[in-house]
Amino acid sequence: MTNVPKKNLHLLADMGFADSFAERLEAFNLRDRNHIILVGKSPHKRLAKGAFPYTNLKDEHAPNPDEYNKVIVHFLLPMVCHWLKQHRELRIHWMFYGAEVYRNPLVGYDPIGPETKRYFSLNLDDLKRNVGYHLIHRRAWKKALLQVESILTHNPVEFELIKSLVAVPQAKMETFFYGKGLADAGPKPPVVPPSKQGPLSVQLGHCAFPSVNHMDFLKACAPQAGVEFHVPLSYGDSKYALWVKKQAQNRTDLHWMMHRLPIEAYMRHIDQMDAGVFPNARQQGLNNIKMFIRQGKPVFLHPDSPTTAYYKSIGIEIGRTDAFSVEEYHRLKSLAEQNKAAFNEYGSEAACREHYQRLFN
Question: Residue-wise over 317-335: b if at least 16 C-beta within 10 A, else e?
Fold first, then answer.
């Protein structure tokens, strides 16, 4: 009898990344060797579109890890941490997203700027979440970290930051990125139209999460002649989106994007932008940032973001959000070809394929 190799098990938080990840596995001929299970509390409200099995890890659909080659956890949810208590000998591979650490009340890390902190003074839901983590999830979280064998991330700077924030003594780094932006953009960057007449169109942030620090940037950056900001707020915290809009209601240089666009329409939106400004101090918005760099468009990042340090280390020139200006835009624009070449070396489709084959074959 021929032994059938065990599949890899992927526990994915129920979000759109599940569909993108499945598509990438399919593109690299790895779909049949990897089993995806969504983890969540509301199967009737599932976000992923694919017909993936769904479990809260307490029901009959909870997987038996002994049936799989290895277990990869995409986003270390509290319910996964509690499930791991039943499998104390299991070693997991943690696909790092960011929010599970950077928004975790059990971790001493604060990426929120002083202007944005004013939003939380009114947020009772956030207070309840903090109390719940300490009372219910603290022990399970700490024990789950001891079962982490590797952390999958593309950024060595961020890996060192993770290790400084949480106790993962056994974890090694495995280089990986999803490649969602590559798939969304297609095989070749679109033809970028020549410089247009009129003001610069600059995207500010990528979503409606407080960690983007919209108001910290807007308070520090007065309106500039010849610049218009386009602000996507359709995804994330809807209360925060309305709060930001109210706080900046007297600004005439802002265009609010309150309705979510299909990915094709969103790509066309980025095609029309001249630059991107991302004031988040934590890792966030990577696909947006990559799509700007891939087109040779200037990107301004928070100076404390690990993404800033990483891109500079591989030869990509990045602007600072605290030094945004039209003059700095033109300086960075002159380095477009240098940035595109550096990005293609480290963030190409070939590099993405290698990561998938190495980790999931």
Answer: bbbebeebeeeebeebbeb
